[in-house]
Design goal:
With 495 residues, the chain is of the alpha/beta class. 38% of the residues lie in helices and 22% in strands. The radius of gyration is 25 Å and the shape is globular. The structure holds nicotinamide-adenine-dinucleotide (NAD). The site of nicotinamide-adenine-dinucleotide has 27 residues, from helix 8 and helix 9.
């Protein structure tokens, strides 16, 4: 029987007590059992919060310039372990080696950005904001000047809850900036991919972070619910599906925490007749089928406008047919498996829903040439999809592309705006006017122009609108600094 995967608390790996409800972490390509996670490890959650709370005061008092030295060293530790971490992602998540390297690289970007904390945390000063006239003893008898300053100070113990699809990067959206700002942190990674995140945190020990500053507890919903209502926790950062994001947001804020909760998506890519065809094919293929469609920035709907459909539909079907599906560590592979059997069943059932709704299934991933034994599904393309169909409105989170043929750019934007989500929207065009019209009218938080996956780099905030996000301050960028600090305002008069 495989071992129970533990936690990282107070600077050491902590074994979990046996028992309770457990799930197996399986390599989705091979079915190999990599370990088991205890879902209800609430005692470990309490220990992690206690470790973080115990470390907070002295870490917050450590000069920010010293705190970021740990991050500078940690960046180098991740560079040294780059290939090891990418291989770990491939084994428990299934994505291709190239995608896994991207997962680590984009995570390292966040560490580099967090190293800028000494500048990012600076406050503001306004001298002589008022004059006190009651002590007319100086300043030429005109009164004593009053100065005012705002400081950004850490908030305390911060919690992060992450999804399965970017096992290394999404935790790095959260904890480096949180600890750079002087907070301490408890991470609850997805129970489907706990090994990458645990290794990510264990490596913080090599960079010299004091014990307790960064902790991880593995588990499921019980652990999440314990952490987001824990009296010693001040903030909750969540990334995952919309249903859980809404639950976490309402529960955490009702318990008095500040919260930022990123949810699911249904992203459109509009293809104008004047678009560069090579850029479209490359962009749409990468967006719809990269990471096996398991990306919150996956373009899952293509909306060719006017006669663009005439060339686009047959070309994208042929290109999708050429995608080799296999295990992620196969150097020739373009698309790995989906995360688990339940996901495979959900994706296949959505394909059937599309057929039943009357869309034309032009490429059926269920019958594609795929390896036996793992959680594989081939790329699928639906043509003649109507905006009201479920396959156009609901997140499938798999390699299924729906083509909605539109008469005009305005029709395409209306279809995009008709979904409950608002994560991202993309337009392919050579017209600045079309691009600007699209950018202005599309109700989505992230916009791409001739870019299939418009993922903001770490210096910019990352989040969507509508049901793709609950909260005020987004992940990354200056929003992250604001989320992980609070203002302290000083009004000073020297007599
Ligand atoms: P998920 O919502 O199932 O799980 C996310 C986290 O929530 C996990 O840590 C899990 O343990 C926990 N969780 C699950 N059910 C819970 C419950 N009932 N109560 C409390 N906690 C619970 O998401 P997933 O399947 O791991 O990830 C895929 C989803 O994440 C997709 O919807 C995708 O769009 C979304 N996502 C969004 C972004 C973004 O930035 N908007 C980024 C990545 C992924």
């Amino acid at each position: 029987m495989s071992t129970t995967i533990g936690h990282y608390v107070g600077g050491t790996l902590l074994a979990d007590a046996a028992g309770g409800e457990q799930i197996s972490v399986l390599n989705p390509a091979t079915g190999e059992d990599l370990g088991r996670v205890r879902l209800d490890a609430t005692e470990a959650a309490d220990r992690a919060v206690a470790a973080a709370a115990g470390a907070f005061e002295s870490w917050a008092a450590t000069p920010v310039g010293e705190r970021v030295q740990c991050l500078f060293r940690y960046k180098q530790v991740l560079e040294d372990h780059f290939e090891e971490l990418a291989a770990l992602i491939v084994s428990e998540h299934g994505k291709t080696m190239g995608e896994a390297r991207g997962d680590v690289r984009r995570g390292i970007d966040c560490i580099e950005f967090a190293c800028c904390a000494p500048v990012l945390m600076m406050g503001n000063t306004l001298p002589q904001i008022a004059v006190s006239s009651s002590f007319c003893r100086s300043e030429d008898e005109g009164g004593i000047g009053i100065d005012s300053t705002s400081e950004r100070v850490p908030i305390g113990v911060c919690v992060g809850i992450t999804p399965f699809n970017f096992p290394i990067m999404v935790p790095l959206w959260m904890w480096p900036m949180a600890v750079a700002c002087g907070n301490t942190f408890v991470l609850k990674p997805s129970e489907k991919v706990p090994l990458s995140a645990l290794r990510e945190l264990e490596l913080t020990g090599e960079a010299g972070f004091p014990p307790g500053v960064i902790n991880a507890v593995t588990g499921g919903a019980d652990v999440v619910n314990r952490l987001i209502t824990h009296p010693d926790v001040r903030s909750v950062s969540f990334v995952g599906s919309t249903k859980v994001a809404k639950h976490v947001y309402t529960t955490a804020t009702a318990a008095g925490k500040r919260a930022q909760c990123m949810g699911g998506a249904k992203n459109f890519m509009v293809i104008m007749p004047d678009a560069d065809r090579d850029a479209v094919v490359e962009g749409v293929l990468g967006s719809a089928f990269g990471n096996t469609g398991q990306r919150c920035l996956a373009g899952s709907v293509a909306a060719p406008v006017g006669d663009a459909a005439d060339w686009f539909v047959p070309t994208i079907i042929e290109a999708a047919k050429g995608i080799t599906v296999s295990r992620g560590d196969d150097p020739a592979v373009k698309m790995g498996p989906v995360i688990d059997e339940a996901s495979r069943e959900r994706i296949n059932s959505y394909i059937q829903i599309g057929v039943d709704e009357g869309a034309k299934l032009a490429l059926d991933g269920r019958t594609a040439k795929i390896p036996q034994g793992g959680c594989f599904v081939g790329p699928s393309v639906f043509d003649h999809v109507k905006p009201t169909m479920r396959i156009c409105q609901e997140e499938i989170f798999g390699p299924v592309l729906s083509v909605v043929r539109c008469a005009s750019l305005e029709d395409a934007i209306d279809a995009l705006n008709s979904t409950d989500y608002g994560n991202m929207g993309v337009i392919f065009t050579s017209s600045g006017y079309n691009a600007r019209r699209f950018k202005t009218r599309a109700r989505a938080g992230m916009i791409g122009v001739n870019v299939g996956v418009p993922a903001p780099m770490a210096v910019f905030p990352f989040a969507g609108w509508k049901n793709s996000f609950f909260g005020d301050l987004h992940a990354n960028g200056e929003d992250a600094v604001r989320f992980y600090t609070e203002h302290k305002i000083l009004v000073t008069r020297w007599i």
